[in-house]
Amino acid sequence: MAGGPIREEAVHEKKSQLVSDRSDSRFSLLRSLQTYKGRAQTGRYLIEGIRHVARAWDERVPIETLFIESSALQNPYGQKLARRIRQTNVPLVRLAPRLYQELTRANEPQGIGAVLRQQWSPITPIDLTRTCFWLAVESVDLPGNLGTILRSAEAAGVSGVIFIDDGADPHDPACVRATMGALFSLKLVRCTLREFGDWARARDVAIVGSSPRGLMGYRQFRCRWPSVLVIGSEREGMSDELSDLCDFVLKIPMCGNSDSINAAVAAGVLLFELAGQRPG
Amino acid sequence: MAGGPIREEAVHEKKSQLVSDRSDSRFSLLRSLQTYKGRAQTGRYLIEGIRHVARAWDERVPIETLFIESSALQNPYGQKLARRIRQTNVPLVRLAPRLYQELTRANEPQGIGAVLRQQWSPITPIDLTRTCFWLAVESVDLPGNLGTILRSAEAAGVSGVIFIDDGADPHDPACVRATMGALFSLKLVRCTLREFGDWARARDVAIVGSSPRGLMGYRQFRCRWPSVLVIGSEREGMSDELSDLCDFVLKIPMCGNSDSINAAVAAGVLLFELAGQRPG
Asked: Is this prediction's ipTM beyond 0.85?
Protein backbone atom coordinates (compact mmCIF):
# COMPACT_ATOMS: atom_id res chain seq x y z
CA MET A 1 0.00 0.00 0.00
CA ALA A 2 1.46 3.33 -1.08
CA GLY A 3 0.83 6.67 0.53
CA GLY A 4 3.48 7.32 3.15
CA PRO A 5 3.40 6.63 6.89
CA ILE A 6 0.06 5.57 8.27
CA ARG A 7 -1.41 7.04 11.38
CA GLU A 8 -4.35 5.08 12.60
CA GLU A 9 -6.48 8.08 13.42
CA ALA A 10 -10.19 8.15 12.96
CA VAL A 11 -11.34 9.74 9.72
CA HIS A 12 -12.32 13.23 10.63
CA GLU A 13 -15.68 12.83 9.01
CA LYS A 14 -17.19 15.46 11.21
CA LYS A 15 -15.07 18.03 9.42
CA SER A 16 -16.78 17.32 6.10
CA GLN A 17 -20.43 18.19 6.05
CA LEU A 18 -22.96 15.59 5.04
CA VAL A 19 -24.36 16.12 1.55
CA SER A 20 -28.05 15.34 1.74
CA ASP A 21 -29.56 17.75 -0.77
CA ARG A 22 -29.98 16.57 -4.35
CA SER A 23 -29.30 20.08 -5.62
CA ASP A 24 -25.91 20.28 -3.86
CA SER A 25 -23.30 20.98 -6.52
CA ARG A 26 -21.02 18.21 -5.21
CA PHE A 27 -23.75 15.65 -5.76
CA SER A 28 -24.64 17.14 -9.16
CA LEU A 29 -21.02 16.71 -10.26
CA LEU A 30 -20.99 13.04 -9.20
CA ARG A 31 -24.26 12.41 -11.04
CA SER A 32 -23.07 14.18 -14.17
CA LEU A 33 -20.02 11.88 -14.36
CA GLN A 34 -22.39 8.97 -15.03
CA THR A 35 -23.19 10.57 -18.39
CA TYR A 36 -20.97 10.82 -21.44
CA LYS A 37 -21.61 14.54 -21.65
CA GLY A 38 -20.63 15.15 -18.03
CA ARG A 39 -17.41 13.19 -18.41
CA ALA A 40 -16.51 14.93 -21.67
CA GLN A 41 -17.16 18.40 -20.25
CA THR A 42 -15.21 17.92 -17.05
CA GLY A 43 -12.50 15.47 -18.13
CA ARG A 44 -13.25 13.46 -14.98
CA TYR A 45 -14.76 10.05 -14.27
CA LEU A 46 -16.06 7.97 -11.39
CA ILE A 47 -14.75 4.79 -9.83
CA GLU A 48 -16.65 2.73 -7.28
CA GLY A 49 -15.87 0.10 -4.70
CA ILE A 50 -12.97 -0.82 -2.45
CA ARG A 51 -11.03 -2.79 -5.05
CA HIS A 52 -11.03 0.02 -7.59
CA VAL A 53 -10.21 2.78 -5.10
CA ALA A 54 -7.44 0.64 -3.57
CA ARG A 55 -5.88 -0.07 -6.94
CA ALA A 56 -6.02 3.60 -7.99
CA TRP A 57 -4.32 4.44 -4.69
CA ASP A 58 -1.70 1.70 -5.07
CA GLU A 59 -0.85 2.90 -8.55
CA ARG A 60 -0.59 6.49 -7.34
CA VAL A 61 -3.35 7.75 -9.60
CA PRO A 62 -4.24 11.22 -8.25
CA ILE A 63 -7.63 11.09 -6.52
CA GLU A 64 -9.52 14.37 -6.91
CA THR A 65 -12.37 13.61 -4.54
CA LEU A 66 -13.22 10.66 -2.34
CA PHE A 67 -16.87 9.97 -1.65
CA ILE A 68 -18.23 7.71 1.05
CA GLU A 69 -21.50 6.72 2.62
CA SER A 70 -20.58 5.79 6.19
CA SER A 71 -23.36 3.31 6.92
CA ALA A 72 -22.54 1.30 3.76
CA LEU A 73 -18.77 1.43 4.34
CA GLN A 74 -18.66 -1.45 6.79
CA ASN A 75 -15.61 -3.32 5.48
CA PRO A 76 -12.65 -2.66 7.86
CA TYR A 77 -10.16 -2.61 4.97
CA GLY A 78 -12.36 -0.11 3.14
CA GLN A 79 -12.54 2.09 6.26
CA LYS A 80 -8.75 1.97 6.66
CA LEU A 81 -8.31 2.86 2.98
CA ALA A 82 -10.62 5.87 3.37
CA ARG A 83 -8.59 7.06 6.39
CA ARG A 84 -5.30 6.73 4.53
CA ILE A 85 -6.55 8.65 1.52
CA ARG A 86 -8.01 11.37 3.75
CA GLN A 87 -4.63 11.83 5.43
CA THR A 88 -3.25 13.08 2.11
CA ASN A 89 -5.81 15.90 2.14
CA VAL A 90 -7.99 14.53 -0.64
CA PRO A 91 -11.37 16.30 -0.41
CA LEU A 92 -14.10 14.09 1.02
CA VAL A 93 -17.78 14.10 0.10
CA ARG A 94 -19.98 12.35 2.66
CA LEU A 95 -23.21 11.34 0.98
CA ALA A 96 -26.51 10.76 2.72
CA PRO A 97 -27.70 7.15 2.24
CA ARG A 98 -30.54 8.26 -0.03
CA LEU A 99 -28.23 10.15 -2.39
CA TYR A 100 -25.66 7.37 -2.38
CA GLN A 101 -28.30 4.81 -3.34
CA GLU A 102 -29.30 7.06 -6.20
CA LEU A 103 -25.68 7.30 -7.35
CA THR A 104 -24.31 3.79 -6.98
CA ARG A 105 -24.39 1.28 -9.82
CA ALA A 106 -22.85 -1.53 -7.78
CA ASN A 107 -24.74 -4.76 -7.13
CA GLU A 108 -23.37 -4.80 -3.61
CA PRO A 109 -22.57 -1.16 -2.80
CA GLN A 110 -19.51 -0.81 -0.57
CA GLY A 111 -19.98 2.83 0.38
CA ILE A 112 -16.82 4.20 -1.23
CA GLY A 113 -15.83 5.72 -4.56
CA ALA A 114 -13.76 8.48 -6.09
CA VAL A 115 -13.52 11.07 -8.82
CA LEU A 116 -10.44 10.76 -11.03
CA ARG A 117 -9.13 12.93 -13.83
CA GLN A 118 -9.05 11.28 -17.27
CA GLN A 119 -5.49 10.83 -18.51
CA TRP A 120 -5.14 11.03 -22.29
CA SER A 121 -1.89 11.01 -24.23
CA PRO A 122 -1.44 12.56 -27.69
CA ILE A 123 -0.75 10.10 -30.50
CA THR A 124 2.16 11.84 -32.21
CA PRO A 125 4.99 11.48 -29.72
CA ILE A 126 4.33 7.79 -29.05
CA ASP A 127 7.64 6.01 -28.82
CA LEU A 128 7.73 2.66 -30.55
CA THR A 129 10.00 -0.22 -29.80
CA ARG A 130 10.44 -3.20 -32.08
CA THR A 131 8.52 -5.48 -29.75
CA CYS A 132 5.59 -3.24 -28.85
CA PHE A 133 2.00 -3.82 -29.85
CA TRP A 134 -1.06 -1.69 -29.44
CA LEU A 135 -4.80 -2.09 -29.29
CA ALA A 136 -7.02 0.31 -31.24
CA VAL A 137 -10.76 0.47 -30.59
CA GLU A 138 -13.09 1.95 -33.18
CA SER A 139 -16.38 1.02 -31.56
CA VAL A 140 -17.66 -1.38 -28.92
CA ASP A 141 -21.42 -1.53 -28.31
CA LEU A 142 -21.43 -2.81 -24.72
CA PRO A 143 -19.33 -0.92 -22.15
CA GLY A 144 -18.91 -4.14 -20.14
CA ASN A 145 -17.35 -5.84 -23.17
CA LEU A 146 -15.01 -2.88 -23.64
CA GLY A 147 -13.90 -3.09 -20.01
CA THR A 148 -13.23 -6.83 -20.29
CA ILE A 149 -11.20 -6.17 -23.45
CA LEU A 150 -9.14 -3.45 -21.73
CA ARG A 151 -8.49 -5.83 -18.82
CA SER A 152 -7.22 -8.48 -21.28
CA ALA A 153 -5.16 -5.86 -23.13
CA GLU A 154 -3.31 -4.79 -20.01
CA ALA A 155 -2.66 -8.41 -18.99
CA ALA A 156 -1.43 -9.22 -22.51
CA GLY A 157 1.06 -6.36 -22.25
CA VAL A 158 -0.13 -3.81 -24.82
CA SER A 159 1.78 -0.54 -24.88
CA GLY A 160 -1.50 1.36 -24.87
CA VAL A 161 -4.96 1.69 -26.33
CA ILE A 162 -5.92 4.07 -29.14
CA PHE A 163 -9.57 5.16 -29.32
CA ILE A 164 -10.49 6.08 -32.87
CA ASP A 165 -12.97 8.96 -33.10
CA ASP A 166 -15.54 8.74 -30.31
CA GLY A 167 -17.20 5.34 -30.80
CA ALA A 168 -16.18 4.01 -27.40
CA ASP A 169 -15.76 5.57 -23.97
CA PRO A 170 -13.39 3.79 -21.57
CA HIS A 171 -14.65 5.94 -18.69
CA ASP A 172 -18.24 4.70 -18.83
CA PRO A 173 -18.98 3.34 -15.33
CA ALA A 174 -19.82 -0.17 -16.64
CA CYS A 175 -16.57 -0.25 -18.59
CA VAL A 176 -14.49 1.01 -15.66
CA ARG A 177 -16.00 -1.69 -13.45
CA ALA A 178 -15.21 -4.48 -15.92
CA THR A 179 -11.56 -3.37 -16.25
CA MET A 180 -11.07 -4.34 -12.58
CA GLY A 181 -8.59 -1.48 -12.31
CA ALA A 182 -6.57 -2.25 -15.45
CA LEU A 183 -7.64 1.15 -16.78
CA PHE A 184 -5.28 2.90 -14.33
CA SER A 185 -2.14 1.41 -15.86
CA LEU A 186 -3.06 1.73 -19.54
CA LYS A 187 -1.81 4.54 -21.74
CA LEU A 188 -4.92 5.93 -23.46
CA VAL A 189 -4.90 7.87 -26.73
CA ARG A 190 -7.79 9.39 -28.66
CA CYS A 191 -7.46 10.50 -32.28
CA THR A 192 -9.33 10.63 -35.55
CA LEU A 193 -9.23 7.79 -38.06
CA ARG A 194 -7.09 9.96 -40.31
CA GLU A 195 -4.57 10.70 -37.54
CA PHE A 196 -4.48 7.00 -36.74
CA GLY A 197 -3.75 6.05 -40.34
CA ASP A 198 -1.08 8.76 -40.68
CA TRP A 199 0.58 7.67 -37.45
CA ALA A 200 0.71 4.00 -38.46
CA ARG A 201 2.01 4.78 -41.95
CA ALA A 202 4.67 7.22 -40.76
CA ARG A 203 6.01 4.78 -38.19
CA ASP A 204 5.59 1.61 -40.18
CA VAL A 205 3.15 0.05 -37.75
CA ALA A 206 1.24 -2.97 -39.12
CA ILE A 207 -2.52 -2.49 -38.75
CA VAL A 208 -4.12 -5.86 -37.95
CA GLY A 209 -7.87 -6.22 -38.14
CA SER A 210 -10.13 -9.19 -37.56
CA SER A 211 -13.32 -10.27 -39.25
CA PRO A 212 -15.25 -13.50 -39.90
CA ARG A 213 -14.47 -12.73 -43.57
CA GLY A 214 -10.72 -12.42 -42.93
CA LEU A 215 -8.53 -14.35 -45.34
CA MET A 216 -5.83 -15.46 -42.90
CA GLY A 217 -6.29 -17.68 -39.85
CA TYR A 218 -5.02 -15.81 -36.80
CA ARG A 219 -2.51 -18.54 -36.00
CA GLN A 220 -0.98 -18.39 -39.46
CA PHE A 221 -0.23 -14.71 -39.01
CA ARG A 222 3.35 -14.00 -38.01
CA CYS A 223 3.50 -10.79 -36.12
CA ARG A 224 5.64 -8.04 -37.60
CA TRP A 225 6.54 -5.58 -34.89
CA PRO A 226 5.43 -2.97 -34.09
CA SER A 227 1.76 -3.61 -34.76
CA VAL A 228 -1.71 -2.54 -33.69
CA LEU A 229 -4.74 -4.79 -33.35
CA VAL A 230 -7.95 -2.96 -34.29
CA ILE A 231 -11.38 -3.84 -32.90
CA GLY A 232 -14.75 -2.84 -34.37
CA SER A 233 -18.29 -3.09 -33.05
CA GLU A 234 -19.71 -6.43 -31.92
CA ARG A 235 -22.55 -6.26 -34.42
CA GLU A 236 -21.16 -4.33 -37.35
CA GLY A 237 -17.44 -5.08 -37.17
CA MET A 238 -14.95 -2.51 -38.45
CA SER A 239 -16.12 0.38 -40.62
CA ASP A 240 -15.21 0.20 -44.32
CA GLU A 241 -12.80 3.10 -43.83
CA LEU A 242 -10.94 1.28 -41.06
CA SER A 243 -10.96 -2.02 -43.00
CA ASP A 244 -9.29 -0.21 -45.90
CA LEU A 245 -6.43 0.81 -43.62
CA CYS A 246 -5.70 -2.76 -42.47
CA ASP A 247 -2.50 -4.47 -43.61
CA PHE A 248 -3.89 -7.82 -42.46
CA VAL A 249 -7.39 -9.05 -41.66
CA LEU A 250 -7.35 -12.16 -39.51
CA LYS A 251 -10.14 -14.58 -38.76
CA ILE A 252 -10.66 -16.98 -35.88
CA PRO A 253 -11.66 -20.29 -37.51
CA MET A 254 -14.79 -21.74 -35.94
CA CYS A 255 -16.35 -25.17 -35.85
CA GLY A 256 -19.90 -26.27 -35.24
CA ASN A 257 -22.95 -24.22 -36.06
CA SER A 258 -21.70 -21.03 -34.43
CA ASP A 259 -20.54 -18.20 -36.60
CA SER A 260 -19.27 -16.05 -33.76
CA ILE A 261 -17.99 -16.00 -30.22
CA ASN A 262 -18.34 -13.34 -27.56
CA ALA A 263 -16.56 -10.15 -28.72
CA ALA A 264 -14.47 -9.87 -25.55
CA VAL A 265 -13.38 -13.52 -25.88
CA ALA A 266 -12.41 -12.97 -29.54
CA ALA A 267 -10.37 -9.90 -28.62
CA GLY A 268 -8.69 -11.88 -25.81
CA VAL A 269 -7.76 -14.75 -28.13
CA LEU A 270 -6.16 -12.32 -30.61
CA LEU A 271 -4.42 -10.20 -27.95
CA PHE A 272 -2.82 -13.22 -26.29
CA GLU A 273 -1.79 -14.63 -29.67
CA LEU A 274 0.02 -11.38 -30.49
CA ALA A 275 1.47 -11.24 -26.97
CA GLY A 276 2.68 -14.84 -27.21
CA GLN A 277 4.46 -14.17 -30.49
CA ARG A 278 6.59 -11.43 -29.00
CA PRO A 279 10.22 -12.39 -28.79
CA GLY A 280 11.46 -13.13 -25.28
CA MET B 1 -34.98 -23.39 -42.10
CA ALA B 2 -36.06 -26.97 -41.32
CA GLY B 3 -39.57 -28.15 -40.66
CA GLY B 4 -41.16 -29.30 -43.91
CA PRO B 5 -43.43 -27.41 -46.29
CA ILE B 6 -44.66 -24.06 -45.09
CA ARG B 7 -48.26 -23.00 -45.37
CA GLU B 8 -48.69 -19.35 -44.63
CA GLU B 9 -51.79 -19.79 -42.54
CA ALA B 10 -52.53 -17.69 -39.52
CA VAL B 11 -51.50 -19.29 -36.27
CA HIS B 12 -54.65 -20.78 -34.82
CA GLU B 13 -54.16 -18.97 -31.59
CA LYS B 14 -57.82 -19.03 -30.87
CA LYS B 15 -57.58 -22.78 -30.47
CA SER B 16 -55.23 -22.43 -27.51
CA GLN B 17 -56.77 -20.75 -24.54
CA LEU B 18 -55.10 -17.73 -23.03
CA VAL B 19 -53.32 -18.48 -19.75
CA SER B 20 -53.98 -15.52 -17.48
CA ASP B 21 -54.16 -17.12 -14.04
CA ARG B 22 -50.96 -17.32 -12.02
CA SER B 23 -52.09 -20.63 -10.50
CA ASP B 24 -52.54 -22.27 -13.93
CA SER B 25 -50.34 -25.37 -13.99
CA ARG B 26 -48.86 -24.43 -17.38
CA PHE B 27 -47.60 -21.14 -15.99
CA SER B 28 -46.37 -22.82 -12.79
CA LEU B 29 -44.30 -25.21 -14.90
CA LEU B 30 -42.70 -22.35 -16.84
CA ARG B 31 -41.92 -20.50 -13.62
CA SER B 32 -40.45 -23.59 -11.97
CA LEU B 33 -37.99 -24.00 -14.86
CA GLN B 34 -36.33 -20.76 -13.79
CA THR B 35 -35.18 -22.55 -10.64
CA TYR B 36 -32.51 -25.20 -10.35
CA LYS B 37 -34.91 -27.44 -8.44
CA GLY B 38 -37.62 -27.18 -11.08
CA ARG B 39 -35.18 -28.01 -13.87
CA ALA B 40 -33.70 -30.94 -11.95
CA GLN B 41 -37.11 -32.40 -11.10
CA THR B 42 -38.55 -32.16 -14.60
CA GLY B 43 -35.44 -32.58 -16.75
CA ARG B 44 -36.64 -29.60 -18.81
CA TYR B 45 -35.39 -26.06 -19.35
CA LEU B 46 -36.52 -22.77 -20.87
CA ILE B 47 -35.24 -20.86 -23.87
CA GLU B 48 -36.29 -17.34 -24.76
CA GLY B 49 -36.25 -15.11 -27.80
CA ILE B 50 -36.45 -15.50 -31.56
CA ARG B 51 -32.78 -16.31 -32.09
CA HIS B 52 -32.76 -19.15 -29.58
CA VAL B 53 -36.06 -20.67 -30.69
CA ALA B 54 -35.00 -20.41 -34.35
CA ARG B 55 -31.71 -22.13 -33.70
CA ALA B 56 -33.33 -24.92 -31.68
CA TRP B 57 -35.75 -25.40 -34.58
CA ASP B 58 -32.97 -25.30 -37.22
CA GLU B 59 -31.01 -27.92 -35.32
CA ARG B 60 -34.10 -30.12 -34.96
CA VAL B 61 -34.05 -30.04 -31.16
CA PRO B 62 -37.47 -31.36 -30.10
CA ILE B 63 -39.59 -28.51 -28.76
CA GLU B 64 -41.93 -29.68 -26.01
CA THR B 65 -43.98 -26.53 -25.64
CA LEU B 66 -43.92 -23.18 -27.38
CA PHE B 67 -45.00 -20.15 -25.41
CA ILE B 68 -45.87 -16.77 -26.83
CA GLU B 69 -47.32 -13.44 -25.77
CA SER B 70 -49.00 -12.12 -28.89
CA SER B 71 -48.73 -8.39 -28.20
CA ALA B 72 -44.95 -8.67 -27.62
CA LEU B 73 -44.39 -10.92 -30.64
CA GLN B 74 -44.27 -8.14 -33.21
CA ASN B 75 -41.30 -9.27 -35.28
CA PRO B 76 -42.56 -10.76 -38.60
CA TYR B 77 -39.82 -13.40 -38.65
CA GLY B 78 -40.74 -14.38 -35.09
CA GLN B 79 -44.41 -14.65 -36.05
CA LYS B 80 -43.56 -16.83 -39.05
CA LEU B 81 -41.36 -19.02 -36.87
CA ALA B 82 -44.22 -19.49 -34.37
CA ARG B 83 -46.56 -20.50 -37.22
CA ARG B 84 -44.09 -23.03 -38.58
CA ILE B 85 -43.52 -24.64 -35.20
CA ARG B 86 -47.26 -24.76 -34.53
CA GLN B 87 -47.80 -26.63 -37.80
CA THR B 88 -45.82 -29.55 -36.39
CA ASN B 89 -48.38 -29.85 -33.56
CA VAL B 90 -46.12 -28.53 -30.82
CA PRO B 91 -48.37 -27.53 -27.88
CA LEU B 92 -48.76 -23.76 -27.54
CA VAL B 93 -49.15 -21.77 -24.33
CA ARG B 94 -50.49 -18.26 -24.90
CA LEU B 95 -49.54 -16.12 -21.93
CA ALA B 96 -51.36 -13.01 -20.78
CA PRO B 97 -49.05 -9.95 -20.91
CA ARG B 98 -48.93 -9.72 -17.13
CA LEU B 99 -47.79 -13.33 -16.71
CA TYR B 100 -45.30 -13.05 -19.56
CA GLN B 101 -43.72 -9.98 -17.99
CA GLU B 102 -43.38 -11.92 -14.77
CA LEU B 103 -41.69 -14.77 -16.60
CA THR B 104 -39.33 -13.11 -19.05
CA ARG B 105 -35.72 -12.35 -18.17
CA ALA B 106 -34.96 -10.66 -21.50
CA ASN B 107 -33.92 -7.01 -21.65
CA GLU B 108 -36.03 -6.61 -24.77
CA PRO B 109 -38.69 -9.32 -24.54
CA GLN B 110 -39.65 -10.68 -27.95
CA GLY B 111 -42.79 -12.55 -26.91
CA ILE B 112 -41.60 -16.06 -27.73
CA GLY B 113 -39.92 -18.93 -25.92
CA ALA B 114 -39.99 -22.68 -25.52
CA VAL B 115 -39.62 -25.59 -23.15
CA LEU B 116 -36.95 -28.12 -24.14
CA ARG B 117 -35.95 -31.44 -22.66
CA GLN B 118 -32.42 -31.60 -21.23
CA GLN B 119 -30.24 -33.97 -23.20
CA TRP B 120 -27.56 -35.69 -21.13
CA SER B 121 -25.20 -38.42 -22.32
CA PRO B 122 -23.59 -41.00 -20.02
CA ILE B 123 -19.81 -40.75 -19.71
CA THR B 124 -18.87 -44.41 -20.15
CA PRO B 125 -19.62 -45.06 -23.81
CA ILE B 126 -17.95 -41.86 -25.04
CA ASP B 127 -16.02 -42.67 -28.18
CA LEU B 128 -12.64 -41.04 -28.41
CA THR B 129 -10.70 -40.23 -31.51
CA ARG B 130 -7.06 -39.28 -31.53
CA THR B 131 -7.83 -35.65 -32.33
CA CYS B 132 -10.73 -35.02 -29.97
CA PHE B 133 -10.65 -32.70 -27.01
CA TRP B 134 -13.18 -32.08 -24.29
CA LEU B 135 -14.07 -29.39 -21.83
CA ALA B 136 -14.84 -30.33 -18.21
CA VAL B 137 -16.47 -27.83 -15.85
CA GLU B 138 -16.20 -28.29 -12.11
CA SER B 139 -17.73 -25.00 -11.03
CA VAL B 140 -18.45 -21.59 -12.54
CA ASP B 141 -19.86 -18.90 -10.25
CA LEU B 142 -21.63 -16.74 -12.84
CA PRO B 143 -24.08 -18.45 -15.22
CA GLY B 144 -23.36 -15.78 -17.86
CA ASN B 145 -19.67 -16.69 -17.76
CA LEU B 146 -20.54 -20.38 -18.13
CA GLY B 147 -22.70 -19.63 -21.17
CA THR B 148 -19.94 -17.59 -22.81
CA ILE B 149 -17.50 -20.45 -22.15
CA LEU B 150 -19.88 -23.00 -23.70
CA ARG B 151 -20.28 -20.76 -26.75
CA SER B 152 -16.48 -20.62 -27.13
CA ALA B 153 -16.22 -24.38 -26.58
CA GLU B 154 -18.61 -25.16 -29.40
CA ALA B 155 -16.87 -22.73 -31.76
CA ALA B 156 -13.47 -24.21 -30.82
CA GLY B 157 -14.75 -27.66 -31.76
CA VAL B 158 -14.87 -29.56 -28.46
CA SER B 159 -16.37 -33.04 -28.66
CA GLY B 160 -18.51 -32.28 -25.63
CA VAL B 161 -18.65 -30.83 -22.14
CA ILE B 162 -18.41 -32.85 -18.94
CA PHE B 163 -20.01 -31.36 -15.81
CA ILE B 164 -18.30 -32.68 -12.71
CA ASP B 165 -20.68 -33.14 -9.76
CA ASP B 166 -23.28 -30.37 -9.66
CA GLY B 167 -21.24 -27.17 -9.38
CA ALA B 168 -22.54 -25.70 -12.62
CA ASP B 169 -25.88 -25.80 -14.42
CA PRO B 170 -25.80 -25.23 -18.19
CA HIS B 171 -29.59 -24.89 -18.25
CA ASP B 172 -29.73 -21.81 -16.01
CA PRO B 173 -31.58 -19.16 -18.05
CA ALA B 174 -28.66 -16.68 -17.89
CA CYS B 175 -26.28 -19.38 -19.10
CA VAL B 176 -28.60 -20.52 -21.90
CA ARG B 177 -28.90 -16.91 -23.08
CA ALA B 178 -25.12 -16.39 -23.17
CA THR B 179 -24.55 -19.57 -25.20
CA MET B 180 -26.45 -17.92 -28.09
CA GLY B 181 -27.74 -21.35 -29.03
CA ALA B 182 -24.42 -23.22 -28.89
CA LEU B 183 -25.93 -25.35 -26.13
CA PHE B 184 -28.13 -27.18 -28.66
CA SER B 185 -25.18 -28.69 -30.54
CA LEU B 186 -23.02 -29.64 -27.56
CA LYS B 187 -22.87 -33.13 -26.15
CA LEU B 188 -23.40 -32.75 -22.38
CA VAL B 189 -22.27 -35.25 -19.76
CA ARG B 190 -22.66 -35.15 -15.98
CA CYS B 191 -20.69 -37.40 -13.68
CA THR B 192 -18.94 -37.48 -10.33
CA LEU B 193 -15.32 -36.49 -9.90
CA ARG B 194 -14.47 -40.14 -9.33
CA GLU B 195 -16.20 -41.25 -12.54
CA PHE B 196 -14.41 -38.47 -14.40
CA GLY B 197 -11.01 -39.59 -13.11
CA ASP B 198 -11.72 -43.24 -13.85
CA TRP B 199 -12.87 -42.40 -17.38
CA ALA B 200 -9.78 -40.32 -18.16
CA ARG B 201 -7.41 -42.92 -16.73
CA ALA B 202 -9.06 -45.86 -18.50
CA ARG B 203 -8.98 -44.11 -21.86
CA ASP B 204 -5.64 -42.39 -21.50
CA VAL B 205 -7.10 -38.89 -21.74
CA ALA B 206 -4.74 -36.11 -20.62
CA ILE B 207 -6.37 -33.90 -17.97
CA VAL B 208 -5.26 -30.31 -18.49
CA GLY B 209 -5.97 -27.74 -15.79
CA SER B 210 -5.15 -24.07 -15.57
CA SER B 211 -4.15 -21.91 -12.64
CA PRO B 212 -2.18 -18.70 -12.01
CA ARG B 213 0.18 -21.02 -10.09
CA GLY B 214 0.60 -23.39 -13.06
CA LEU B 215 4.17 -24.29 -13.90
CA MET B 216 3.88 -24.37 -17.68
CA GLY B 217 2.97 -21.46 -19.96
CA TYR B 218 -0.04 -22.48 -22.04
CA ARG B 219 1.84 -21.89 -25.30
CA GLN B 220 4.67 -24.20 -24.26
CA PHE B 221 2.21 -27.04 -23.77
CA ARG B 222 2.05 -29.46 -26.70
CA CYS B 223 -1.32 -31.07 -26.82
CA ARG B 224 -1.40 -34.84 -26.52
CA TRP B 225 -4.67 -36.12 -27.91
CA PRO B 226 -7.20 -36.97 -26.64
CA SER B 227 -7.34 -34.44 -23.82
CA VAL B 228 -9.76 -32.61 -21.58
CA LEU B 229 -9.44 -29.01 -20.40
CA VAL B 230 -10.83 -28.57 -16.88
CA ILE B 231 -12.25 -25.29 -15.55
CA GLY B 232 -12.79 -24.38 -11.90
CA SER B 233 -14.57 -21.50 -10.22
CA GLU B 234 -13.65 -17.89 -11.06
CA ARG B 235 -12.79 -17.11 -7.45
CA GLU B 236 -11.51 -20.37 -6.02
CA GLY B 237 -10.11 -22.13 -9.07
CA MET B 238 -10.12 -25.93 -9.20
CA SER B 239 -10.72 -27.96 -6.04
CA ASP B 240 -7.70 -29.73 -4.56
CA GLU B 241 -9.20 -33.08 -5.55
CA LEU B 242 -9.50 -32.00 -9.19
CA SER B 243 -6.02 -30.42 -9.18
CA ASP B 244 -4.61 -33.75 -8.00
CA LEU B 245 -6.09 -35.44 -11.08
CA CYS B 246 -4.43 -33.04 -13.55
CA ASP B 247 -1.63 -34.31 -15.78
CA PHE B 248 -0.71 -30.71 -16.67
CA VAL B 249 -1.50 -27.36 -15.04
CA LEU B 250 -1.07 -24.47 -17.45
CA LYS B 251 -0.88 -20.78 -16.75
CA ILE B 252 -1.56 -17.77 -18.93
CA PRO B 253 1.42 -15.44 -18.43
CA MET B 254 0.30 -11.89 -17.63
CA CYS B 255 1.97 -8.51 -17.77
CA GLY B 256 1.22 -5.28 -15.98
CA ASN B 257 -0.36 -5.06 -12.58
CA SER B 258 -3.20 -7.46 -13.31
CA ASP B 259 -3.10 -10.90 -11.83
CA SER B 260 -6.13 -12.19 -13.69
CA ILE B 261 -8.34 -11.78 -16.71
CA ASN B 262 -12.06 -12.46 -17.10
CA ALA B 263 -12.72 -16.18 -16.56
CA ALA B 264 -14.59 -16.58 -19.85
CA VAL B 265 -11.73 -14.88 -21.72
CA ALA B 266 -9.17 -17.15 -20.05
CA ALA B 267 -11.20 -20.25 -20.98
CA GLY B 268 -11.48 -18.96 -24.56
CA VAL B 269 -7.73 -18.38 -24.86
CA LEU B 270 -7.04 -21.95 -23.68
CA LEU B 271 -9.79 -23.57 -25.77
CA PHE B 272 -8.61 -21.91 -28.99
CA GLU B 273 -5.00 -22.79 -28.20
CA LEU B 274 -5.96 -26.47 -27.87
CA ALA B 275 -8.16 -26.23 -30.97
CA GLY B 276 -5.36 -24.60 -32.97
CA GLN B 277 -2.91 -27.35 -32.06
CA ARG B 278 -5.11 -30.06 -33.52
CA PRO B 279 -3.60 -31.68 -36.57
CA GLY B 280 -5.29 -30.74 -39.82
From this structure: yes
